[in-house]
Amino acid sequence: MIAATPRLVLRGRDFTAEAISAAVVVLLVVVAATTSDTFLTPANLTNLLKQMVTTGLLAFGMLVVILTGGIDLSVGSVVAFTGILAAGLSAGLPIPVAMTVGVLAGIAFGLVNGALVARFGLAPFVVTLASLTTIRGLAFVYSEVPITPTDPAFLGLGSAMLGPVPLITLIMAVVFLAGGVFLSRTPAGRSIIAIGGNAETVRLAGINVRKHVILAYAISGACAGLAGVVLASRVGIAQPSVGVAFELDAIAACVIGGAALSGGRGSARATFGGVLVLVLINNLLNLYGVQSFWQQVLKGLIIIVVILVRRK
Amino acid sequence: MIAATPRLVLRGRDFTAEAISAAVVVLLVVVAATTSDTFLTPANLTNLLKQMVTTGLLAFGMLVVILTGGIDLSVGSVVAFTGILAAGLSAGLPIPVAMTVGVLAGIAFGLVNGALVARFGLAPFVVTLASLTTIRGLAFVYSEVPITPTDPAFLGLGSAMLGPVPLITLIMAVVFLAGGVFLSRTPAGRSIIAIGGNAETVRLAGINVRKHVILAYAISGACAGLAGVVLASRVGIAQPSVGVAFELDAIAACVIGGAALSGGRGSARATFGGVLVLVLINNLLNLYGVQSFWQQVLKGLIIIVVILVRRK
Amino acid sequence: SSGGGQDDGTQTIGVANFLLSGPYFSGMDKAIAAQAKKKGKIQIISTDANGDAAKLAANIEDLLSKNVDAIIISGGPLESAPAALNAIKQAGKPVVLVDRKFAVGEYTSWIGPDNKAIGVQDGQFLAKRLTDGGKVGIIKGGPADNSIGLARTEGLKSVLGTTQGITLVEAPDFGNWSSDGGLSVMESLLAQHGDLKAVFCENDAMCLGAQRAIADAGKAEQIVLAGVDGQNEALKAIQDGTNYVVTGLNDADQIGSMGLDRAVEILSGAKVEKDTVVPSPMVTKDNAAQYYDPNGTF
Amino acid sequence: MSLVLRGVTKDYAGVGVLHGIDLEGRFGEVLAVVGANGAGKSTLIKILAGAQPMSAGEMWIDGERVGLRSPHDAHERGIRTVYQELTLVPGLSVTENLLMGDFPRRRGLIDWPAAHARAAELLESIGFGAIDPRTSAERLTVARQQMVEIAKALVTEPRVLILDEPSAVLAGSDLDSLFALIRRLRERGVLVIYVSHRLAEVLDLADSIVVIKDGRVIETTEPARTSEDELIRLMAGRRLEQIYPDRRPEPGDLRLEVSGLTRDGEFEDVSFTLRAGEVVGMFGLVGSGRSELARCVFGAEPASAGSGAYGSPAEAIAAGLALVTEDRKRSGLVLGMSVRDNIALTTLKGPLIDLARQRDQIGGMIDRLGIQPEGCAPMVVEHLSGGNQQKAVLAKWLLKSPRVLLLDEPTRGVDMATRVEIYRMIDALARDGVAVLLISSDLTEVIGASDRVLVMAHGRIVGELRSEQTSEDQVLAYSMGTLT
Ligand SMILES: Nc1ncnc2c1ncn2[C@@H]1O[C@H](COP(=O)(O)OP(=O)(O)OP(=O)(O)O)[C@@H](O)[C@H]1O
Ligand SMILES: Nc1ncnc2c1ncn2[C@@H]1O[C@H](COP(=O)(O)OP(=O)(O)OP(=O)(O)O)[C@@H](O)[C@H]1O
Ligand SMILES: [Mg+2]
Ligand SMILES: [Mg+2]
Question: Where is it mostly found (chains A, B) (predicted)?
């Protein structure tokens, strides 16, 4: 067996990326638990569970797109649009319906992004940069002012707890579990990964590349739509201005989890590790009371260190 | 010779990208001139000249990095840092010196970005995403509050006119002219382009790839530093919070100008065309009195249309 | 479409918004336009710099090139724009600042709130309310260069910092002036300081998010909230007798319409006050009904 | 006057690839290096070129010990290399690719007219004058690109010229001009190190031959003292009894009928049939349009006119077709994925993939084709040697049990022993009733392995010959248009 770096291969699968993510997460947890009294309190742990939801949902969708070799910069705008749409519709429609429409809107944006990329061969970066702008504008066109749903049931999704675990965290966990199975065990998932490695080979294997690329962007749109609805429900107010720069954390989570931006490499598990790393860093810096702008300085440096470690 | 699209080739050089940019610019100008009374007024034209400066400077630096196959997301933060540094230093140092130090700081950040990319082989997207965060934090660390230089001479750079042309526009023009010559007529410029096409080949030709990649990021840093200083001087006050999302317009300008994000393809002239397209779109939407949020919607759509046209 | 001194006596007023994408700022823009319509014979040209200071300068130059008669600047988080103010001065046009008073540069008139006073007001209310003392959390909007937020917090601290039995804890992270930001900052704050008695936010949007976090943590009985702005949802929460107990009115509608009036007065040659502080009445359960307009835009 | 290697060893992350290579090349000779796939030829060359450091060992030039730290070092010492993979920068002109980093300048700036002139002169002087130096590299055919690669190595006359399988993409007159060029260089005192799997060519050209097996030199010889059979035996470690299989019985039913097929700019009015149980060879010079034809039949590219082509690869596969493309890196494999995942690509079935079943199935196929090394299923396919990569591509399609198999240059870059295995496999498939189209630029192979040969030239089928009744000369004559 020939490999440039020592790798962890079990039963024929390469777990190196997962192992590194797990190691970094464990390290952060140990540091946090030993240096902060607050870290292991139930309140803080519940907090962590809640705060990983938005980044987590976006990161999974982003992973699927990144696997194809693309990128989806529009997710933050989709969060804003779908949240405010669901909140707006909840005035006239049953809340589950309003929320479903929100997620469907996310899928619709994803389909448009995907079609522009797959059908017309445009660069994903630019397509989703343009749709970032357009969808943000549409969110404001839909409502310039925040919308507060009057029906308290709108808050249910965001505040329900199942024992010690928030419902939305469970939803995110289900997305990652189902997503993991999708990527590793279904023909569509395998095809998406292979497309990122070499789209021409996949096309000649009789697999519809366009369809799968569009599917990937639709999944990202769905995740962003879900994140938007969840966020609106969690906050209780939907604002057209939320979600600016959310894509950056989602992308960072994927990369920290070892996904290659050139496509074809990445896993749901390792990406989830990346999400944990980001959330833990934020939590830790907050617990230590590090000032906001020093937090920024450190966060950037830590990301560099993590990817330097991963590179080894 | 087989070619997918009709191309404009003169004396062995391919001018297709330039031609498309020029055509789109001319089209926009004609539409603007015929549909708006204000467009051709000297005041509006001067305005246009000023409005293109920040995006223009950043776009040229971004082009150089994109040519190597990289990307520089940190330029907006560099604008903030260098602006506030120059403004801060102008209290104790002669203004030209303070401004030069600002630009040098931009170069320093570029060198760090470049070193992380070239020396450690990290993905440019992630490196500059991390430095976007860190440098923004550093701007606030340098000064949490805005700095207003007391010496009115600090405003000189930003407000001076040479005849009908603002000095800062001339500076930007010089950057593009010199940059164009650099890219097309110097060994370093050609090497940067070649690296984006096939870095391994360039390495095998005995050219120091690392050095040139670092140079590219340093150029982007220099342009961002210059843009930061110019912006502070133009506004008359330096704020650590300026420049958020500036990188997006710069990247959009490059792509509208036909640069390939995968590297190796793009020209200063066509990128300048891309800058003009963006500035004209903004100006037109303003002249028509399109409401701000609709402007965003339309801007995204127009970018898509332009790159669809370019693809043909 | 080009401005000033048209034959029919219509006057053109340019509005330069630094950042429209916030309910407070778009409310301001709308109020100016609405007031102009009410007055009649006034044309409004509104621009948005989308948070880019250079673009604001360009927009102002744009307005000047269209020969507007006066300019209203809604500067939002922008601390100042000396060069743009210079350009307006050179063009000999009057400029009215609304809400944001620029730290430097010459302007004709400013109409806005006294942000520090609002903080003081909230602080006094909380001092009276927390008879047994206790911890008070502070959620700032950020970034660190936002002097509007700084003034509000400074006002609060000037009262509570010296009140016996009260400890102040500032959240290290910023809430970015938004409800979702307020929510997550509050959650972090609660994890470390479960014993808070009150929370002050630099605006209502963040307080509304914080209120959610408090409710989720089951601490609605324990912690009261104090905000700033008088955003509709906050007024309603106060009126309904929730744990949202106080805010200081910083009415975009009022400031916007006064700003327009001020510009018109100036154009008519009247001598006007340079700085006008719009009073920011304290809103509590007792008087919230008076300010809450279910159909208001902000 | 020689270049000497002593005890050169190379390992990648602890795994040995070269184990103490000794060899000596004299200036003014052609030194051929031959060996099976994965023997370590390319690795040896990268060390000579300064592109890879050796793990241990020494290199001497003219009695002076040299240590190469970079390709630049090698260039300074007059060592130039043409790699197995094409390395031109696609967006740049031929001139720029040739002169990279060493442009004529005026007042510090590159003088483009002078640069183009110099490039044109250079191309002319080595017999490649047909190439316009202003064209961008990506717009040249693969053969032309290879010629530019070679020209690039000759910008300044080298002392040592290393060529790694230069003939793999050249044919006909292009090949002749390459050989002529090599002979001229030899006369001028250049040491040419030549790597190739085409043994006839090696025997024709070389002054001395080094045989490498498993990273060791197992023989140093001369053309006069050896033969093709002998070299094959040395490389493979065993004697190959019979290279081409016996004739097959008469073919069966019609499996594919192509008629009047045209794709504008690529090929025109092509008609042929494939029957069950037959192997049809297709010969043509590089650029004659065979690959395009195969891709078009398979539905990878739309046809402009005619019948017999499928609408999409999916349709073609559903009808029982399989296409092994000529460029495995670009369109045959997903290099970063495991061998198993690559082979699985054509047989993904849902809703949930049965991993255990997939493992068995693919494991069986890997065993059947003898893909090396042992237990390679989870390995990243990129780490296999060329021949084994080719087998992985075959495995992917065989798993699909195709009824019609289109093979485009299936033995390019593949060593003799592996080729024989591939011929056997083709034969076995045909005997099982599969119809096979074998596209190849190797004349011997095309005649030896097929029942009938179609000859293409300039996008048309110009001849159809029975394999047992034709000769290499006749096929070549058809392909060059001297016989119709
Ligand atoms: N970068 C690398 N990392 C790990 N192993 C490598 C690397 N490059 C080559 N190898 C291994 O070294 C061995 C020799 O490879 P090399 O490319 O030198 O063979 P070759 O003789 O040129 O074969 P071919 O005829 O197929 O081109 C192979 O087993 C290959 O898998
Ligand atoms: N000038 C060119 N511009 C763009 N693509 C070209 C050009 N010349 C050749 N090609 C493409 O490059 C590929 C490889 O060319 P090649 O010379 O091998 O032709 P081919 O049609 O595959 O012929 P054959 O398989 O018979 O050798 C083909 O797909 C061909 O269409
Ligand atoms: Mg080789
Ligand atoms: Mg071919």
Answer: membrane
